[in-house]
Amino acid sequence: MSLTDAIGRKLLFSLDPETAHGVSIAALRCGLPVGCKPRHDERLRVRLCGLDFPNPLGMAAGYDKNAEVPDALLGLGFGFAEVGTITPLAQPGNPRPRIFRLTADDAVINRLGFNNEGHDAALRRLEARKARAGIVGVNIGANKDSADRIADYEQGVKRFAPLASYLTANISSPNTPGLRNMQAREQLAELLSRVMAAREAAAARPPVFLKIAPDLVEAELEDIAAEVLASGIDGVIVSNTTISRPPLKSGAVATETGGLSGKVLFGRSTTVLARMRRLLGPEIAIVGVGGVDSAEAALEKIRAGADLVQLYTGMIFAGPSLPARVVSGMSAALEREGVGSVRDLRDSALDQWAAKPL
Questions:
Q1: Which residue in the list 146, 165, 172, 173 is annotated as catalytic?
Q2: Is 173 a catalytic residue?
Q3: What radius of gyration do the chain's Cα atoms show?
Q4: What is the DSSP pairing of strand 285-289 with strand 235-238?
Q5: How far apart are alpha carbons 307 and 296 in whole angstroms?
């Protein structure tokens, strides 16, 4: 961690987590911190779903919920940024406090509940930046009290398709009651059918991804994979936060309800990723998320079957220079190993990860 990042972390950690998050968004909006972008490395370029990613590292959804700073995030060195989750109507989310730092574990528990300003606010911001370069995905969700949650996803596709580099249907948050039930096969089949029909009817047809939870057993993964293959969607994001509680060092705060993210999620999420790659085959895009905080972790996700990787919690603990450090570290690893393209590493550890128990 740089001295600047260490000072910034100390200041932000003196605030409650949600206030600190707001301060970090405000800083990026004002042009701070000034990132040192990694040197461009053609070996890190990934062509996927018709998109050219300058490197395989992205900012995961959940940080920039309202599409306020996607270009500032790209300026930190990310190859792409995903905004959201965005619901049709603005909603406040769950009561505070609802974010908890587990500092001893480099982890976070959150129970935010899709707090966001709604479609209209995000659309205005994305319209204002549409002439700019850079890959910006839009993560869409359903309002907590919606009478027809699938209709909320259809509306998200219709409204954001002309502005999004790709769309992600998020059905994996543990903080909206009943949302994860949409991963069950019958509900998932209807969701994917209607989402893809909405994309076909939209003014543009960006790739569509599905974001799933890590708390799934093999039979559930098989059902999801079957519906993904039948639907024609472009990819899967593995995974969201976990409701499980592996051994943690952080005391009473570790018992808070909500989704757990950070280093402790790496093993489970990477095993689920590898299982999904086995089930989906080589052609479907997979984005690996969960516990990425270094170049080594990012590359291991790729070896386990990911085409792209994302992080979020890692930057809370390591600071805004982390994406540039990860990307530079990936370049250095390819140089050391004599690898001509990061794509050549994909699936090289698939069998080892897929064999691990869930």
A1: 173
A2: yes
A3: 19
A4: parallel
A5: 15
